[in-house]
Amino acid sequence: MVRLHSPILDRLADLTRQIVDDTVLPHAEQVDRDGCWPEQSMRAFAAAGLLGLQVPGILGGHGQGLHALCHLTSLIGQACPSSALCFGMHCVGTAVIAAKATEHQRDRYLREIAAGRHITTLALSESGTGAHFYLPETTMTAQGDRYLLNGTKQFVTNGGRADSYVVSTVASGGAAEGDFSCMIVDAGTPGLTWMAPWHGFGMRGNSSRGLHLTDAPVPVANLLGTEGDQVWYVFEVVAPYFLMAMAGTYLGIAQAAVDLAGEHLRNRRHSHTGATLGELETMQTRYAAMWVALHKTRALVLEAAQRGDAGDPEALPFILACKADAGETAVALANEAMTICGGAAYRDNSRVAQLLRDARASHVMSPTTDMLRIWTGRALLGMPLL
Hints:
The two termini are about 30 Å apart. This protein has helices spanning about 5-35, 40-45, 65-80, 80-100, 105-115, 230-265, 280-310, 315-340, 350-365, 370-380; strands at about 120-125, 140-145, 145-155, 165-170, 180-185, 190-195, 210-220, 225. The strands form 2 sheets. It has a 4-stranded mixed sheet with strand order 1-4-5-8. Strands 2-3-7-6 form a 4-stranded antiparallel sheet, with no helix packed on it. It has 10 helices and 8 strands. The chain is an alpha+beta fold and about 375 residues long. The protein is about 55% helix and about 10% strand. Strand 2 (about 140-145) and strand 3 (about 145-155) form a beta hairpin. The longest helix is centred in the middle third of the chain and has 38 residues, at about 230-265. Helix 3 (about 65-80) runs antiparallel to helix 7 (about 280-310), helix 8 (about 315-340) runs antiparallel to helix 9 and helix 8 (about 315-340) packs antiparallel against helix 10. The protein is globular, with a radius of gyration of 21 Å. Belongs to the acyl-CoA dehydrogenase family. InterPro entries: Acyl-CoA_Oxase/DH_mid-dom, Acyl-CoA_Oxase/DH_mid-dom_sf, AcylCo_DH-like_C, AcylCo_DH/oxidase_C, AcylCoA_DH/ox_N, AcylCoA_DH/ox_N_sf, AcylCoA_DH/oxidase_NM_dom_sf. It comes from Pseudoduganella chitinolytica. Keywords: FAD, Flavoprotein.
């Protein structure tokens, strides 16, 4: 598909680049080193109105889709993958709320998000079902004008920092396995208990935490869609937006790896010859292969985003494949950059080493790379995904 020029997206991209230069990049090292949530970056995104990326224009947002989401997360991910993950998960949560928002949900959440006064995020993963995020064990029990939620979520990005959480549950009334409902749970809801912060190998600044829900009362008005909306929410909203946000983030990591390798090849000189590393033919071929791999993945991600936004009936395998491919490319290129940059990359907490650590998260973050490969094959063969 041919990329269409979008003045709105160009403006948003320019704004994002400015924030990255002014705020995200200066704090990126600290975010990774100390494992701290990128508060300055998220505040800057809020002040600039970028938190409303997925909010409809009529509600004060930008009304953007998959293309804008993956493009902006890639720009942020080049500087600070943790910031890209936090921003991306907020945008995915916003998209899930916006998909079937009631008037109450538009006023209570979407308008506030667009105004930069509200951060949301997803809370789907559970230790019991692992990568099968579409099979929640958290329960919701109807009680008058509210539901009582019970269960434990894991790896909640922006955990303890967001103003609301889009929580997946099993529909009430003894629904069959596989039913899937989403609820908006406000941060101050009684019965919410945060577990200790998770200290990860990579993506160290995303404030990933576990969340206990014990008879947490949530108004019926906070139910998204209808009870048991699994297929619609998982494959029409949750998965596409999540996969494109993550594909953009890992594409940003891959781009950063290529940039750092190129900088090293141009600037590192041998004292005994005066020649740069880039003058060695072996280095030229390695760098060329990195560049080709990056652009092949970028083309797939762009194709997936454009097909998804256009409602192309053939979009699903592209969307399923792009996060897996971007993750594999990010790992491969960060690893190659480690080799090209030599000893400089192996110093403690080097920028290249950080990219490799962050890239590795792609394979284990649900849906995992293996799961996405299976789903892609099934989609291409016309088979049910589940």
